[in-house]
Structure formats: C-alpha cells, structure tokens
Write the structure tokens for this entry.
Amino acid sequence: MKRINIIAEIGINHNGDIKISKELIHCAKKAGCDLVKFQKRDIDLVYTKKQLNSFRESPWGNTFRDEKKGIELSKKEYDEINSFCKDLDIGWFASAWDLNSQKFLNSYDLNYNKIASAMIIDKQLLNEVAQMKKHTFISTGMSNLDIIDEAVNIFKNKNCSFELMHCVSTYPMRDEDANLKCIDTLKKRYSCDVGYSGHEVGLAVSYAAVAFGITSLERHITLSKSMYGSDQSSSLEFNKLLELVGGIRKLEIAIGNGEKQIIKSEKSMEEKLRAHIFQRQTS
C-alpha cells in the first residue's frame, strides 16, 4: 500500500496568534504528520459588507469583521511560519479563499495548493491554481458529480496534478453522513488519487477511510477543544493526533497486498496444528 500523506489542518485554529500557530506546527511534527495546512482569506472579498458589519461577540470585538480580521495572520507572521516549518523540516501550504490570497501564497515556495470545498465552484480561482502546475488537493464537500466534473476538467486541461479529497462539510460531521463509498466512486470516475478530509469526532471513520485506499488524510488539529473557534470541536488534540498517525501507519502495514498464501510465520503453527493430518496423509 502506498504511504498515506497525513495533513494536519491548522486552518484558523491558531486564532490569529503566531505563538499558537507554532505550537500547532510543533505538535503536528511531533505526532508524525507530513504536512500542515492553513487557510488564507481577504475578508473584504470573501464576505459581504452586511456579513462583516453584523453583530458577533468574540474575543476581538462585537462585529463579524472584528472576528474575521482578528483570526487572519499577517505577511510577517506567514514569513515566520515559513521559516519555522523549514527549521522543523515539515511542509506547509494553505487553501486560498479568493484570488488575492492565492497570489499572496504564490510568493512562497510551496509544493502544494488546496481548493477548499467552498471554492470548488469558483472557476476563476480553479484556473489560476491549475495553471501553476503544482499538485493540488481538491476538497469535494457540498458538491455533486456535476460540480466535481467541471473542476476536474479544468485541472486535466491544464495538465495540473490533482488529488480529490472526499469531504462532508458539516462541523462536526455525523458518522452516518460519512458515505465513505464515495471514495471508490471518485477513484473509478476520475482515475485519480483520492484522499479524505474529515470533520468527524473520533478516529473510527478516518481509519475506515484508510481501508478504502486513500492516498492522503487531512484532519483539523487544536491545542484544546475548549478554545474559541468554529472548528475547534471537530479537531484533534495532540494525544488523539498521535494516536491517529500511529494507527494509520499500522493499517498501512496490515492491509497488505491481497495475495492469499501461507506466510513464513505461520509455518511452525501449521506443522503443529496439522501434524495429525499430515501423518495420516503420509501413512
């Protein structure tokens, strides 16, 4: 089985704090993750004025704008993230929610791009990302096959490597909504690698996704589920992240190659448990 790429989704769980960002990156590295991921937004492009001016009480103020502005990281802070990840030898990338944010991310030497589930219908963004020819993770929450067809065609026409991520955009996701058989549906329809981006509570669904032959797995991480933020409740704290990574690496070995044969370690047991049969057959 191909080694699964494990992505720790920091997203906005840093709450605009570079110190928390670095702690989360360190946790991901310590747990054995391959990559960390952030989310980048120009809030004036992503949200309407009505949304931004609406009342919302948060640690940053009393409007939706105050909160969304408060959780965005600055250029200087992204520079620190870039250097910190290099020092820790862990890759990072981010999903851009608008063209300005994608252009911002293009200023860094990143190996990957990400299309968030919300953005899969934004053809302008898809074309901008696809023309860069970087391997792109495309999340498929809130999508049907018609929507995914259009996104895939853009990436195929631009000869850009991509990987679909089966995803359900609820936070947290109910286990009964996971529909993991969609992983096979996507693999068969598009003949491409398919990963899983999970928002569930716990690890069982993520482990089950591994058995469907995913190539990447993404889960949100947090320092504490009790922290302020919309994604914290569906995120994994360090101990659970460590358990997830360890479990996935065991499953990669356990799934095997599908060839049924008597393995070397069974030989001595076979000789013991079938001795009476072998004796009868040779007498």
